[in-house]
Structures are given as C-alpha cells and as structure tokens.
Amino acid sequence: MTTPLGLGLPQMRQYDIGKDVPDVARAAERTGYESLWVFERALFPEPATQGLYGVEGLPWPDTYRSVAEPLVTLALAAAATERARLGTSVLVAPLHVPFQLAKTLASLDAASGGRVVAGFGTGWSHDEYAAASVRPFAERGAALDELIGVCRAVWGPDPVVYDGEVTKIASAVVGPKPARPIPILLAAGDSGRARRRLVDHADGWLPTGMGAETVAEQWRQLRELAAERGRTEPIRTVLRVNARYSAKNYEGPGRRPFQGGVDQIVEDLAAHAEIGLDEILIDVQGTTRDAEELKDVAALVYEKARAAGV
What we know:
Layout: E1 5-8, H1 17-31, E2 35-38, H2 70-80, E3 85-88, E4 91-92, H3 98-112, E5 116-121, H4 126-132, H5 140-155, E6 160-163, E7 168-172, E8 184-186, H6 192-201, E9 204-205, H7 212-228, E10 236-242, E11 244-245, E12 259-260, H8 262-273, E13 279-283, H9 291-307
Parallel strand pairs: 1-2, 1-13, 2-3, 3-5, 4-5, 5-8, 8-9, 9-10, 10-13, 11-12
Antiparallel strand pairs: 6-7
Helix pairs in contact: 1-2, 1-9, 2-3, 3-5, 7-8, 8-9
C-alpha cells in the first residue's frame, strides 16, 4: 500500500504568487499529489537577534526574506483545485487572533468542500512574537491551548460560547461552519507538555523528516504516551520533508536526509515510509529556481516514489 503524498506550495520570493500558486496546485493535483501545504514565516529580522529555530549562530536562509501569507496562498490553491486536501504545516498559533483564525479556516473549509487540515505550532522566533503575537513568548503554550479551544467552539454548533484569557464569546451564532470537522494536527518535538497537549487535544502529529530512526523513535514515544493517557482514537500523522534538491546527487561526506538529487530524495522517502506514517509532505520550493522547475522536480519525485513503492 502506497503512502499518500503532499506537496508544499510556492510561497518564497522567487515565485510569482498570484500566477505560480494556482499553476503549481493544478499541476500537483494532476500528477497525483493528494494534498497541498503551506507554512508560516512572518518576517526576516535584520540583523537577526536569534539563530534559525532558536539555535545560536545558525543563519536564517535567504529564502525567508519573503514568504507569502499562508492562508492567502491556500485560498489561491483551493480555487484552482478540486480534490487535494489543503493543509498548514504549520501556522504559528500565537501570531493569530484565535476567533478570526477559527472563522477564516471554517470559511476556507466550507468554500473548498471540506478539504482543510489545520496544523498548528508555537513557533520559536522572538522577533515574530514582538511584531505580531497575541500573547508574550512565555505564554505560547497557553496561547495554543486557547486557539484549539476557540476553534473547536467556533466550528461546533451554535450558540457558540467560550470564556478564555483572550477570547470571550458570551453566546453567538458564528458561520459559516466547516463542511466537516476540521482535523487539528500539532507539531510536538521533545517537550513533554507539547506531547501531552497533542495526545489529549489534537487529532494528529506533524513530525519533520530528520532521519528515519529519529522519527520512528519519536513516533514510538508518542504512541506509548497515548496509551498511558488512555487515548483510543488513532493519531493522524503527516511527515514534513524539507528537501534540499540539487540537479545532481550529493557526493560529499555526511549527507543529511533529503539532500541531493531526486534519486536520493526518493531513497530517503522510502526509508521514512517504512515507519508507517499516514502521509508525507514534500517541500522542495526552497531549492528550485522557479515554478517550472518546482513542477518538474515534484512530478519526477512522485513518479519515482511510486515506482519505488512509496
């Protein structure tokens, strides 16, 4: 049985967002990709006060200098496609007003015929929090908790009632409603609190492809935690692969997962598919020159992955 594959949409500065997003979305759906995904990067601090992912000394990639707003990008893709699921991996929850985000996602799901997958995380950039956050960085976990609660309330039956730290809904009719319950997936790394939040309150998990052994161990630990906490519902899993594509296979020492030519990327996809996750999202946009190359690489990866039984 093959693993459903998704594709990251073009959001970076080398792309013409208005033209390339619909074009790539249509092409991906024709190729056979079952989902289309966006990520969030609000700004590019200059000079950077913090390394990438909060790692001291790790530079931000130049491609982050311009990243299109994720929900606008997803709306463009929704209008250009018919079947592909539309996912966020991830939205940085505390950068959004909970009620407005819940209503926007509900509207997008209703408009697309029930195709939205809501992936949330807490983020790591202090500069983004300073510019846009609803609550301080230290309260990022609580902000995500409230966002999940508001979404569940707004997407549920009327009258909607919610009493939170930021959001107060006494009693209201809120529409449109989603076409079906929108699944909420969370990015949860090594934090015990984040993993408990996922097990207790989310529908699924958004791991990152850092090596098959690493992801398999994280998945084992998450399943064990779910069993300990009495969860009976399955945890939906979508692996994000940030591929570093090159026209030729990587020949240097210490190749990282998903670095190199299409054959090497597919080899790593096969290794990760053996873990038994539900879906794999492949994002190559950061290393392709333009939309034409992105479409060509995406089609070749899909073709060779299917030939390899992924």
